[in-house]
Give the backbone structure.
Amino acid sequence: MFKKGVACALLAVGLFQASAQDVVEPEVVMPASVEATQVAEEVAEPILADVEAPIQAEEPEPAAVAGEGEEACTNVDGFVDADGDGCEVYEKEVGWCATASTFKNADGLDASTACCACANIAQLADIQVLQTAEGDETLLVDAGNATVVEAPTFAEVFDPTGDRSYGVEGCTTDPEWKDSEGDDCAAYEQQRHYCATAEQYPGPNNVTATEACCVCPAYNQILADLQEQQPEESAEAEEETEEAPVEEAAPADEE
């Protein structure tokens, strides 16, 4: 009986060892490798950078002046100057272009670059003053950075090639002349757009700045040349905007 019990115990031990050898340990699933994680981060980094990057507002581009093979000039959409005047106003008051740079809006933009009416003047009168000792070659059309020239030498400065005529040959400015508002030729030289309405402010003997000041014949010729270049559509649109005559209302019937 004892031997039988020992034999049973030994048999049990043998069976236990055999069973232990047959048991298959479960496979341990390891997490993604560090290398794979780094690759994923490198791929995601530029994508996240694009998404998180702040969106910057685009600045308005200045009006483009048409040249050979280029599209027609286009006004900057929605532009108004510091006084609230848009390009349509400058088209009717071309003389304002001379001082456009002094009315920059909050974006630093003015009609000289935003409006085709003024940009065309700059292209038409792309003339530089004679080089000075300081090397100043400021455009005459840029009133904000204008260079003062003596009236007798204006023609030489404005038209150095001599291929354009401005009416008065050998022009001489009258130093004593003043218009009906007390402005002399020096004032017209500093505010050249005054020349556009000079006929409305004659001085003594009905002499206007066009006759007394050498600066005005040249300036008015610029405006005339520009108006000739304006498309017919602009002229038609200007005629349509003219105010119609106001008809007087019939008197009310007396009771």
Summary: The two ends are 150 Å apart (CA to CA).
